[in-house]
Amino acid sequence: MTRYAFVTLWHIGAPIDRIWEEIAHPERWPSWWKFVERVERREEGDENGVGSLWHHEWKTALPYRLIFDLRTTRVEKPQILEAASTGELSGTGRWQLTPQASVTVVRYDWKVSTTRSWMNLLAPLARPLFAWNHKIVMQEGGEGLARLLGARLLQASHSATIS
Questions:
Q1: Tally of domains within the chain
Q2: Whose C-alpha in 61, 102, 124, 156 is 20 to 30 A from the C-alpha of 13?
Q3: Residue pLDDT, tens place only, 41-82
Q4: Which H helix or E strand runs over 129?
Q5: What per-residue confidence (pLDDT) applies to 163?
């Protein structure tokens, strides 16, 4: 399996609580994030959401889709939301929100391996394309979230490590 470590940073001119309210409700993501086709809660978690199981179906900037499940493993409202991924992407995702004056810095760490054989077969040649694809998907997410909140995406940055 090919391993990916992506880091995305969004600087959004909106309060942390408003951003948390959208990030913490993935069933709403398809309404503002064009690459998210469907998110469905399959299992309830505890009163904080820990243990919730979410089924995700995403399209990408490239002509393929990804299907995976995320189980919420940590919630520290309104700053940290973590989940473990299984399915076509296996690993962990972590949202971290940090207020800085009138801006909220949103950091997303996505450490996953691909389980689809064609992706692993093509990975030695397609790594730059897969990294570009992730950047496009995440850039659109930041722009969509800012639009929803009536805020500005002041800055976005992306990095990728692929092994």
A1: 1
A2: 61
A3: 999 999 999 999 999 999 999 999 999 999 999 999 999 999
A4: helix 117-149
A5: 87
Q: Residue 145 sits in which domain range?
A: 3-162
Residue 1's pLDDT is what? 80
What's 106's domain CATH number?
3.30.530.20
Give me 114's structure tokens: 């691909």
pLDDT the model gives residue 54: 98
54: Cα separation from own chain's centroid: 13
Residue whose C-alpha is closest to residue 144's, from 56, 61, 38, 28: 28
**E-strand stretches of the chain:** 3-12, 36-43, 53-59, 65-76, 80-87, 89-100, 103-114, 153-162
Alpha-carbon gap, residue 6 to 139, rounded angstroms: 13
Spans in the chain with pLDDT lower than 70: none
Count of residues for the chain? 163
The tokens for 47 are: 């009163």
Give the separation between CA 24 and CA 19, rounded to whole angstroms: 8
